[in-house]
Each structure stands twice: as structure tokens, then as C-alpha cells.
Specification:
heterotrimer, A alpha/beta, B mainly alpha, C mainly alpha, A: alpha/beta, elongated, C: mainly alpha, MetI-like fold, two-stranded antiparallel ribbon
Chain lengths: 271, 285, 278
Amino acid sequence: MVRRFGIIAVAIATLLISCSGKPADRTKKDKHTITIAGSTSVMPFTEKLAEHFMIDNRKFVIDVQGGGSTAGIQACLNNTVSIGMSSRELKEEEKMLNTIIICYDGITIVVNPKNPLKALTLQQASKIFSGEITNWDQLGWINRKIDAVTREEGSGTRGSFEELVMKGNEIDDGIMVQDSNGSVKEVVATDPYAIGYISLGLADQRVRPLTINGVIPSIRSIKAGRYKIVRPFIYVTNGELDADGRKFVNFVLSKDGQNILKKEGLVGFYD
Amino acid sequence: MTKNPAKKEQFVKLVLVAFALSSLLFLFLIFIFILFEGLPLFHKVGLKNIIVGSKWAPTKGFFGIYPMIVSSFLVTFGALVIGAPMGLSCAIYLSEYSGKKMKMFLKPALELLAGIPSVVYGFLGVIYIVPLIRNYIGGSGFSLLATSIILGIMILPTIISISFDSLMSVPKTYREGSFAMGATKWQTIYKVVIPAARSGILASFILGMGRAIGETMAVIMIAGNALRIPTSILDPLRTLTGNIALELAYATGDHRLGLFSTGVVLLVIIMILNYVANFGIKRKM
Amino acid sequence: MRINPRFTNKFVQLGLNFQAFFTVGILVIIVAIICFKGFPYVNFEFIFAYPEDMGRLGGIFPSIAGTILLALLSILLATPLGVGTAIFLTEYTKESVFTKIIRFGVESLAGIPSILYGLFGFIFFVIKLKMGWSLLAGVLTITIMILPTIIRTSEEAIKAVPRNLRIVSYSLSATKWETVTKVVLPSAIPGILTGIMLSVGRAVGETAAVIFTMGSSLRLPTSLMDSGRTMAVHFYILAREGISMEKAYGTALVLVVSILLINVVAYYLMNKAISKYS
């Protein structure tokens, strides 16, 4: 009986060694690893860029983590990652980091496709989230409570939204909170009475973007400077990037990289 | 082996003591590190402003978690309202009514409920229960009610298995005595068996509470996470656990300390519940 | 008016019957939903292919591998610790203040919710010990989390071994350790394995403690310091972010079926252990 247990233990150990040990030895030789962490808004796009990058650069492994803008910036300051991602401007105490703006992103206010509402003014948007407008009949629809959804405290998207839309008004405490663009979108996509704000790049046919002050949120209106709820997507680095990191950033800023971002609904530097 | 067997015994015993102490060490580390991170803020902001403060805006210097404490207890109470009668009746059925074969099938089946990951419960709650509430009862569906239902189901295995054990430990002679007096089966259960197993049943409820108050992932998926104390069962709410899980990834500085303070409060509540369940109410094993 | 007690009796019996099957019904419904919705998307490729486009396309292989690595490594660490503690508590000491303190510690660990393990793992392993989000940090956190389960089940299993087996062994002038390893442990193995399997199930299904320690990087962890994503975390992200409901259901199916299988094996072993001495 004991022997059998021993055999099992040996088998498990062998399995483990073959799982964890070998690949590490093999890849150590000429593996180029770039670690990136930060904003969950920037993460999906970075992952996509990394996927494309790794097709042509097979020796590279790019490790993309979420964690949030603030965590990404912190991780970069501690040198735990080579590149941090941020969806907000840096604060004073973070300014010693190098910033690379990789593109711009609009924040769009979205409702369920079943909702007939097409347009909001900036002021109405602000009033919905500050709890002054709480019923859809105040906006000319049915008598039904508005299920507003916001992001959690500390989120870059929320930070930009507070700055660009709320303009000093506080977001009401009674409003639902979700912790990512995706989960806000899920709530709005499934609840006909919901309203929320998400990254323009993530809006698809399951939610409907509203025009703000008569301007449709789109790459064109952002480029023309007419749609105003826009924030930069930033890579931050602590000092000079190493050669591997630079290679990836160059790819991101190249025409190919920017085209990938454009396809995702972000505003890049080329046309 | 040429080694002196007595020496070997000594060595073995030493290693085993070290192993046994490791659990205490881990508990100690968990306490130290959560307290170490969480307590400074109590000192800085003041215990009162955290425990009874009603505004949570950590990036602006408000760390009140009173609404979350209340909400945590509300969902726990809701879960108990749903889970306790269901769980207790299952336990009674299993111990008093079901045949041996049925027991062999039912008990593991019920315990499998405990194996289903909490994210799956949360997901099914979002897909099925939330829309049901939104369409037929009202509100956004992300609510105290939805959370209570899901948590009520999640604590069933805890309540069933501990109540079952305590019902089973009631001596057969109690039941026989009652039957001999001409009591029906239900009268026997109601008047004799349940009172005799009372402390174990109570312990199962309290441990169920502990499970409900500590649940995280399912809760952030269905509770809606609004910061205000709910005024009806259809309002969204945020629990202590939800607060930590929602914001931990983003938090730095005082904000992160605030989340650890939330953890400290949660830890204290959990320790009290566990202490009451395990030691205050003597568990017959 | 008094209701006839015989009527009440029948009525209650019916109600309890219904209640028990209703509760089992919940389990059946949950498993059925996951199976029916997930079945069309699970195939060879789904299990062995790498995910593409954040999991929208392709398979879930890295998350399966990540789950197995996390569970196996945690078990490998927790089993000697847990079984050792159980042996100490049952064989090497008498009930005393010391054992009471240890039991209190184990009970307390068992009651701590997983989010607090996550919080602890995050501050201690990830930040203070500078492991970063890594397999190692995840494994250590989960090891502590599953330890109480292993200790408690092993203790039960060892206690259930009949006393006379030990007496026989001692009378053959075996030492304590020889008695434990050659007589007690072999008899207790089914019970101990039950605890191990239940712990594997817990590790596989855990999210809150894993996501803050092991991170959520969607790739195959090739070393202990790599971050990774378990199936439960992958499912959580797919479902919550609405990345792909199809892949979410598929992942849920693989996840739930493996946990149920693990648990069924555990109960099988437990029955074997119980029937051995009764």
C-alpha cells in the first residue's frame, strides 16, 4: 500500500517536472520576454497587438496583465514590468516616467438597443450619473427607473469620465458599479433600462452609443475634434526601454500596429 | 537503517511538531499582514469614520464602509431566510425519512452542490435569476433579492451536512421513547429530535452565515455593487467582500489601505461567527 | 380547531420529500444547463488549442494546464504538511492545551473566506516577497487555503483506524514511526485521499484567491514565476466581460465536469474508507 502511494507520488513528481521544468529550460536560451501590465481598458488592445507581433517575432513572449492604470504605473515604477499601460494622464508624482501615447480612445455613453433614446446633452449625461435624473420619462421615454452603471473608484475610464462629463459633480452612490468595460457593456446589453459608459473601441451591435450634444462618437468626429469625451491610451516606461521593449513599441507605433488599433475603433496616428 | 531508532523517533516527532505548528504560523501571518496593512488607516482616519462613515470615496479621502457592513449582513440574513428552511428540511428528510439506499444517493448529491465553483453560481444568477427579477418583479435585477437567492443555494451544503450530523447524533432511544408514548413521527421530530439537536443546527446556520458573508465572486456578479444601503430588496448593494474584489486591482496608497481595512472588518466578523459556531455552541462530533 | 396530528404527519412527510428532491433538482438543473449549453462547443480542439483574440476564438489549453499545475503543486505542498499535522495530532500527542490551540488554528483557517486568502497572498507573496503575479504565489496561497481540509479529513481517517492494529504492531516491537507508516497510514489512505481530492476540487474551482495571486495572464506558465490563468478565472473573465458566451459555456462545462468527477472519486474513496471498518 505504501509502495503504491510512493509510486503515485513519483509519478506526480515526474509529471510536474516535465510540465514545469523542461519548457523553462528550453525557452530560456533565446526567449525575449516583455512584461506589460496596467489599465484593463488598454489591455485587450495590447493583447491583440502582442498576438500580431508574436506572429512575426516568434522568439518573443509578451506577458500582458490587467490590474488597472494605477497598478500598471506602480508596477512600472518598481520595475516589475517593462511597460505599464494607462488610460489616464499621469499624476504629478508619476511624471518621472516616460510616456508614449499609443492612440486615443473615445468614451461613449451607451444604452440597450431596445431603448429608443438617441441623443443626450453633456448636461443630461452628467445629471443621470449624479442622480438628478433617475427616471426614463424625464428623458421622454417610459416611466421606469434608470439603471445607470458606472465604473469602480480608481478606474482610468471613471477618472476621465468624471473629468470630462461630470465636471466636478459627484457620481451618485445609488448607481450600480462594475469593474471593467466588458462588464458594464454586459449589463447594458442585457438590461433594456440600463445606461453606462465604455471605451468606444469596445462598443458593438449589442449596445447603442448615444450622440452627445448632437455629435456621433466615431473615429472621424474625434479626429475632427468635435467629439470631446476622449482620453489617451498611454504606455509608460521607467527610464529607457531595453531593445526588446523598443521593438514592440516601434511595432505598435508603426503603420501596421496603428491599423490594428484603428480596426478596433481606436484613434491612431495614421489615416 | 543503521541509525539509532530512538534518535529517529525524536527527529520524526520534531518534524511533525513543526508541521503542526505551520497551520498556526499561517494563521498568524494572515492576521499580521492583513492587520498590518489595514490598521494604520484606522489610526489615521479614525475608527468611527470607517465603521460608521457612510461615504466611500477613497481617492477623495472618504473611507466609510458602514453601508457595506449593513449590506453584508442583509445578504447574509437573506441567504439564511432562503437557505435555512430548505437546508434544515433536507437534513431532516435525510436523517429521519429516507431509506439507506436513498441516503447513499442523496447525501453525496447534495454535497456536490458545494463543489460547483462560485463563479458558476454567479454566472447562472446573472443569466437566469437577474432577468427574471427584472422582468417580473422590478428594478434592474441586480439586487439584494437575487444575491440572497444565489447565496441561499450556496450555503445549502454547509447547513445540510452539519444539521444532518447533529440530527444523526441524537440517540435512537430518544425517538423510541417518544414513539412509545404514541407520538407521530413528525411530533417526535418536532418535539424531541430537533430540540435535542438544537445546538448543532444553530451551528450549521452560523457557519452558513460565515460562508455567505465571505462569498465574493458570485456576489460581485449579481449584487450590482452600488454604494448605498439598499432601501428595498430590489436595490443593488455592495458587500465587504465585493468592495475588496472590485477595487483591489486598481488601488494604491490610502485606497489600498482602505481595502485592507475592509478586510480587517471582514476578518473580525468571520472570526466572531466561527468562534460562536465552533466553541460557543458545543458541537457534538 | 386542532389539526389531526396524523394528517400533519403525512403532510410534513410529503413536504420534506418534495424539499429534498427540489434541492437535488437545483443541482441537476445547474449541471444540465451547463452541459446542454456547453456541449456543442467542447471538442478536441477546444481542449488542446491555444486561445486567440483574448479567448473569443480557439481553445482553452493554457488555462487547463494552469489549473492542473496550480492544483498539483498545491497538493504536493499541502499533503505532507496536512497529513503530518494529522499524524501529530492523533498519534504523537495527547489532548492538551497545545493540541487545542492547533485545532483552533486549523478551524480558524478553514473559516477564513477565500477573498481574505487572496488579500493576504497579494500583500505577502505578490508584493512583500516580490513574487509578482505568479504561479508560485498562487500555489502558496492555495496551499494554505486547502490545508485545513486535508488536516481534518486525514485526522478523521487516522482516528478511524482500529486501535488493535496499532497494539499488534507495537507488540511486534515496532517503533511509533514504523507503526504509523507501515500500519496506520496504509489503512487510512482512502480517507486521506478523500481529503486530497476534495482539496483538488476546491483549488480547481477557486477564483477570488487565485486571481489576485496568480494573475490572469492568458498563456501557458512555463516557470514558477510566470503568471497564468486557471479555468475558473478564464471562465469568470469570459463571462463577465462578455467576451464570448460560447467559450464561456464550454469552459464552464469542462470546469464543472472535472470538479464533479473529482468529487465523485472523493465520495467513492470515502465510502470505501467507511465500509472498511464498519
